Amino acid sequence: PDDTHVENRLLVPALEQSCRQLGVQIVCGAHVIRVLSDGARATGVDTILGRYDAGTVVNAAGCWSATIGVPDEALRPPVFPVRGQMLAISLPAPTFLSRVVRSPRSYLVPRHDGRLFLGATMEEVGFDKRNTVWGINKLLTGAQELFPDLQRCAIQEMWAGLRPGSADHYPVLGATALPGYLLVTGVFRNGLLLAPVLAKTMADLVTAGQTPALIAPFSLARFAGEGVVAGKIPGA
Predict the structure, then answer these.
(1) C-alpha angle with apex 175: 173 to 181, nearest 5 degrees?
(2) In DSSP terms, which residues pair with 35 in a beta bridge?
(3) What pLDDT score was predicted for residue 227?
(4) CB of 102 closer than 8 Å to CB of 92
(5) Which helix (H) or strand (E) holds 138?
């Protein structure tokens, strides 16, 4: 009963508007090439639009986090894209479904506007956001196994996104060996869900200079030694 959901396409523009009202400067199209440093700490970023100086650099580039150049390869997070294909269909009736339903093959999320989201595949195919026959068929088959009546519904839209996966399936958060360079990436399927708590803990780290205990186990440093196992956080 307490499982809810938000419309990401409405949330993100609302977040942007809120940031601008608070005085945040948002620069679009500034693809980041590399993190800059003076040898002692991060000093900013180099982008296709020029250099931006900063006392603190936070890499929150999702599945692209590892593509950003760094002064030392040990600073590059082991993060990679995992494609998720989805589609939206029309609900057979407004009251047909009111809760999120999950199965081993798909999950179904009813929206308040009469749409039903079917998702999502998990595919390691690089930076490829195309829909495929296999992916869409898998979702439709899984949904119809749960609710055969869905076969008469109209398909409204299909798309794909890229999640930031990590080497051990856990987020990569906090400070790095380069002072002033922070990471918040690898959140995989839970980016929107974890966004509020990650924003607060990372802000606390920036302002106080100390890593909050909540995110300490998720440091990049855990990948420095041996024994990184998928699904287990070393030292946690």
Answers:
(1) 110
(2) 45
(3) 54
(4) no
(5) helix 133-146
The one-character DSSP state at 64 is: G
For residue 112, the model assigns a pLDDT of 86
CA 220 to chain centre: 17
How many Å apart are CA 213 and CA 108, to the nearest integer?
Answer: 35
The residue ranges of the chain whose pLDDT is under 50 are: none
Helix (H) or strand (E) holding 47: strand 42-47
Is residue 143 within 8 A of residue 150, CB to CB? The reply is yes
Best CA proximity match to 172, nearest among 21, 51, 61: 61
User: Which residue has tokens 């749960």?
Assistant: 146
pLDDT at 3: 75
One-letter amino acid at 184 equals V
- Angstrom distance (rounded) from CA 205 to CA 199: 10
pLDDT at 231: 53
Strand partners, 162: 83
Measuring CA to CA, which residue among 183, 168, 175, 186 is closest to residue 231?
168
